[in-house]
Design a protein that fits this description.
Blueprint lengths: L1 H8 L4 H11 L9 H16 L5 E6 L3 E2 L2 E2 L4 E12 L4 E6 L13 E12 L17 E5 L3 H11 L4 E4 L33 E4 L2 H9 L4 E11 L3 E9 L5 E8 L7 H23 L9 E7 L3 H10 L4 E8 L6 H4 L2 E5 L9 H13 L6 E4 L7 H4 L10 E5 L16 H20 L5 H23 L8 H23 L5 H18 L17 E4 L16 H12 L3 H11 L6 H10 L5 H14 L2 E4 L2
Length: about 625
């Protein structure tokens, strides 16, 4: 493996990738728009210059794929907002033409409105926040979650739209100093909205100033933004191996201009990784791989669900890698280069392999690195969902001070970070494309070497959990994870299970787990006493309940919305569904959730009931 790393470190070209990134960030790449399509065809042409065949896959927009609701096409050409004060002077505070993040993406309105009033609703995430307010023909100035404020202010209380001036929280970073950035905000449709809506994204400084002008200023706006008939486009291809088994590299291409680290960096790293691999194979430096190496550029989640809906049964993808936000300049953004591990419900050795490669590549460069427990939030979560069963770790620079803002520019991306990511990705892909039974012991040693980091991150996330899991429960949790990882690794390598090998592996992992939990102390957790009932999931891939909130009654929609806003509840729901395999009963799932610090029984019962009503899950007869 180190021979591969050394080979690619001498050939990966971070400067070339950064030049390509600067070109890509000129495109406004919102999902299902002409800007996204133009960026995709630009990269297609770039690949073809190097003899790499790339195919554009088209999917009907607005449909559900594996139950995931995809957006329709959208276009915008104008979005201006002016503030006029009592003395008649006017100031333009938002202009889509100058800064496309000024307009809330997927706003729908065509025309001009003058002398509009506005109300200040700081959070606006609860109906009580609107008591005593008349919102008809007004805008709402808010810092609350835009999807929730839109539901209440526009659909329920009759406002025209939103003026959002919040700064999204990023765990591990203080963003309070970001007074002059605009956040990426969008109205993602569910199909159940009562009214079309529009809005503007303001800086925190603009929002505070406007708040002080309540009752003293009027707003004039001119917007031209509407639906457009477009298809969902993916870009895919592969380096043919000896077999039709595939190791897949994926990155999402979407996000607003400039969107440099998120995720022009992942897209260009993918392009340069495939170019490097193809060149090395054609020049005879590398052998033709045993397995094919495929690549996929998508609009995030949308293109992944559509692709798997069409090809999941036709292709034999045995593992993969997701590149999302891989280029950050750590000194400027506060980022750390991370491997997001595989979910405990799936297991595998692929994440340990990726982290071992990451350490080998970054060791002499002074980069901050970390091995993290599983987190969702990008396309790897679809592939690594146990109902899909394709192990796909995630390479990730996080946290990023300028995440989802107009300051995510090429200057915040480092050519060195791109070079490192390309080297890591190329090594990982080619290693797995060639791996066989003879590589098992090396992969096992990597897993055992990096299991402590995984356990330490898990324990870190348990701080403050109530009730905390017992040491015995945690030990059993990680032993089960090790068993699943062993069998998943055999499946990846095409190997048969051998009793002595399994017995020895589990003995070694038990020793690592015992050592890591030696100093863990927690009071005895009460038994969950939940239920012996068994449920199964009725569709593949993660559940996006927020997408379906408008299919619920008013009462259930309000319940679900409040759960989404509560800390860790969606994370708990995701893990809950991942454990739900049609065999484990709720008591067994509760024990796992307790070991993750995610057992919120009352709230999970509400999620269970709502999911049954939506047809996301079904009860298995006992």
């Amino acid at each position: 493996m180190r021979d591969l790393t050394d080979l690619f470190q001498g050939k990966a070209d971070g400067k070339r990738a950064h030049e390509l990134l600067k070109e890509l960030t000129k495109y406004h790449r919102i999902q299902v728009t002409k800007g996204y399509d133009e960026a995709l065809y630009f990269l297609k042409g770039y690949l073809e210059e190097y003899g790499i065949k790339a195919v554009v896959e088209e999917f009907e927009a607005g449909k559900k794929y594996w139950g995931y609701k995809t957006p329709t096409g959208w276009k915008a050409s104008k979005g201006e907002l002016w503030v006029t004060v009592e003395d008649g002077s006017a100031e333009k505070i938002a202009d889509y033409g100058e800064n496309p993040l000024s307009l809330i993406q997927r706003s729908y309105f065509r025309g001009e409105l003058k002398a509009l009033d506005f109300e200040v609703v700081e959070k606006g995430e609860n109906p009580e926040d609107y008591r005593g307010l008349s919102l008809e023909n007004k805008l709402v100035l808010t810092r609350g979650a835009p999807w929730r404020v839109r539901d209440l202010a526009v659909d329920k209380f009759g406002a025209l739209g939103l003026l959002y001036y919040g700064v999204m929280d990023v765990e591990g970073l203080d963003r309070s100093s970001l007074r002059d950035v605009r956040n990426y905000v969008a109205f993602w449709p569910t199909g159940g909205e009562k009214k079309k809506a529009f809005g503007f994204a303001l800086t925190a400084a603009q929002g505070e100033k406007l708040k002080d002008l309540r009752g003293k200023a009027r707003l004039n706006l001119h917007i031209d933004a509407d639906y457009e008939h477009l298809d969902i486009l993916d870009l895919c291809g592969k380096i043919q191996g000896e077999s039709e088994e595939e190791i897949m590299l994926i990155a999402h291409l979407c996000h607003p201009r400039p969107g440099a680290n998120d995720n022009a960096s992942g897209a260009v790293a993918l392009i340069e990784t495939i170019r490097l691999l193809k060149k090395s194979i054609e020049e005879g430096i590398l052998k033709k791989p045993r397995r094919s190496i495929s690549f996929l550029l998508v609009p995030e989640f949308t293109g992944t669900f559509a692709f798997l809906d069409r090809y999941y049964k036709k292709k034999h993808i045995i593992a993969g890698l997701n590149l999302d936000m891989v280029g950050a300049d750590q000194g400027k953004t506060g980022s750390t280069l991370r491997v997001i591990g595989l979910p405990a419900q799936l297991g595998g050795f692929e994440d340990a392999l990726l982290y071992e490669i990451l350490l080998n590549v970054s060791r002499s460069r002074g980069l901050k690195t970390y091995f993290s427990d599983f987190q969702s939030g990008s396309d790897h979560a679809v592939f690594s969902d146990p109902t899909v069963g394709i192990p796909m770790p995630h390479l990730f620079q996080w946290p990023d001070l300028y995440y989802h803002t107009d300051h995510d520019t090429p200057e915040m991306v480092s050519p060195e970070s791109l070079e490192v990511s390309i080297t890591i990705a190329a090594t990982y892909l080619y290693y797995l494309a060639m791996a066989g039974e003879n590589d098992y012991m090396e992969l096992e040693s990597m897993y055992l070497k990096h299991l402590p980091e995984r356990i330490r991150d898990h324990l870190k996330r348990l701080k403050g959990a109530e009730p905390p899991p017992t040491k015995e429960a945690l030990s059993e949790y990680f032993r089960d994870y090790a068993r699943r990882s062993y069998y998943r690794a055999l499946k990846t390598l095409g190997m048969k299970a051998k009793r002595n090998r399994r017995k020895n592996f589990l003995k070694l992992t038990a020793s690592v787990i015992e050592d890591q939990l030696r100093d863990y102390r927690a009071a005895k957790s009460p038994p969950s006493g939940w239920s012996r009932e068994v449920y199964r999931r009725l569709k593949k891939g993660p559940h996006f309940l927020r997408q379906r909130r408008h299919e619920l009654s008013d009462t259930d929609r309000e319940t679900l919305s409040q759960l989404i806003l509560k800390k860790n509840r969606i994370r708990a729901a995701n893990s809950f569904f991942f454990w739900m395999d049609g065999k484990r009963n709720l008591d067994e799932i509760a024990r796992y959730l307790l070991s993750e610090g995610l057992f919120y029984r009352d709230d999970l019962e509400k999620i269970l009931e709502i999911s049954l009503k939506l047809g996301e899950i079904g009860r298995v007869p006992l």
